[in-house]
Automatic annotation (TrEMBL):
Protein name: Extradiol dioxygenase
Entry-linked PROSITE patterns: EXTRADIOL_DIOXYGENAS (PS00082), VOC (PS51819)
Superkingdom per UniProt: Bacteria
Keyword 4Fe-4S set for record: no
Keywords of the record: Aromatic hydrocarbons catabolism, Dioxygenase, Iron, Metal-binding, Oxidoreductase
Cofactor(s) essential for the protein: Fe(2+)
Species in which this protein is naturally found: Actinacidiphila yanglinensis
GO molecular function (one): dioxygenase activity
Residue ranges of domain VOC in the record: 5-122, 142-255
Entry keyword annotation includes Disulfide bond: no
SUPFAM superfamilies per the UniProt record, alphabetical: Glyoxalase/Bleomycin resistance protein/Dihydroxybiphenyl dioxygenase (SSF54593)
Family annotation (InterPro entries): Glyas_Bleomycin-R_OHBP_Dase, Glyas_Fos-R_dOase_dom, VOC_core, Xdiol_ring_cleave_dOase_1/2
Entry similarity comment: Belongs to the extradiol ring-cleavage dioxygenase family.
Length: 289
């Protein structure tokens, strides 16, 4: 009970067209535009539900909200009390925000790194199938996880593990921690960094063939592949990464393992079984022996 999964991510972006081109032409993800407030927002359709990624036109590139789905209204109230007891000011989302999310109830607070974190109940299923650009089916199947780097690592771990009740799956010295809220290996990873940023957001694909087709399209379309195809050591996922128009990475992956309550957290040592060669320096590279 409690938080069930990562539901959606909202971003303020300076170039919606570049994002839409990357998602559609390269990654095979359909995007629709809806009215929101005085403007519009582009919604990426990853599965049968309303959206998983929202792109808000802005003068700066920055995370707008990180949304978690909560099992029941009772659990939302319980987690709200835990947040209040821990010193977080919990607010209700507006009616317009709740409707956009496809939620029945919505609350939010600000995390130690300054991000708006939302807790929502309900998900609106608005389609029976996802419209894909030509040649891209079946494509993405959902939203997997994100990695948040920040100098406030200790406070973020306290929030997610002690207050929001995530479980530690594994870690790598000196400061990278993978946390789960369901059977998936992780829904969030927390890392130490001198400045706060989202390192990457992962888009789940149904098979290695889907990942491979996206990899071929990315190379053919000249997308900036920032980390080559490879397999992670800890969750065993096969993936590659592209640098998105807002400057951080999108991971295109499949095949991550699931873990049970008998899982024992451990240091998984090296980052990859094979591949995942970085175009730039890896901020989470394994320390030298």
């Amino acid at each position: 009970m409690g938080i069930r999964k990562l539901g959606y991510v909202g971003l303020d972006v300076t170039d919606v067209d570049a994002w839409t081109d990357l998602l559609g032409r390269t990654l095979g993800i359909g995007v629709t535009t809806v009215k929101f407030g005085a403007g519009e927002v582009a919604l990426a359709e990853l599965d049968a539900f309303k959206y998983r990624l929202a792109l808000h036109p802005s003068l700066q590139d920055a995370p707008r909200e990180l949304g978690w789905i909560v099992d029941t209204p009772r659990e939302l109230d319980r987690l709200s009390r835990r947040l209040d007891d821990a010193g977080y000011a919990v607010e209700d989302g507006s009616a317009e925000e709740t409707e956009l999310r496809g939620a029945t109830r919505l609350r939010w607070f600000t995390d130690p790194a300054g991000h708006r974190v939302e807790l929502a109940t309900g998900e609106a299923k608005v389609r029976t199938g996802v419209a894909r650009p030509a040649g891209s089916a079946p494509g993405a199947t959902g939203l997997g996880h994100f990695v948040l780097a920040s100098p406030h690592l200790a406070e973020l771990r306290e929030l997610y593990e002690s207050v929001l009740e995530f479980k530690l799956t594994d870690y790598r010295a000196p400061g990278l921690f993978f946390l789960r809220c369901n059977a998936a290996h992780h829904s969030i990873a927390l890392a130490h960094a001198e400045t706060t940023s989202i390192h990457h957001l992962e888009l789940e694909h149904g098979s290695i063939d889907d990942v491979g087709r996206s990899y071929d399209r990315a190379k053919a379309n000249g997308a900036p592949i920032s980390i080559s195809l490879g397999r992670h050591m800890n969750d065993k996922a096969i993936s590659f990464y592209v640098r998105n128009p807002s400057g951080f990475h999108l991971e295109i992956g499949c095949g991550g393992i699931e873990v049970g309550d008998d899982w024992v957290p451990h240091d998984f040592g090296v980052s990859d079984v094979w591949g995942h060669h970085h175009a730039e320096a890896n901020p989470f590279a394994s320390p030298p022996p």
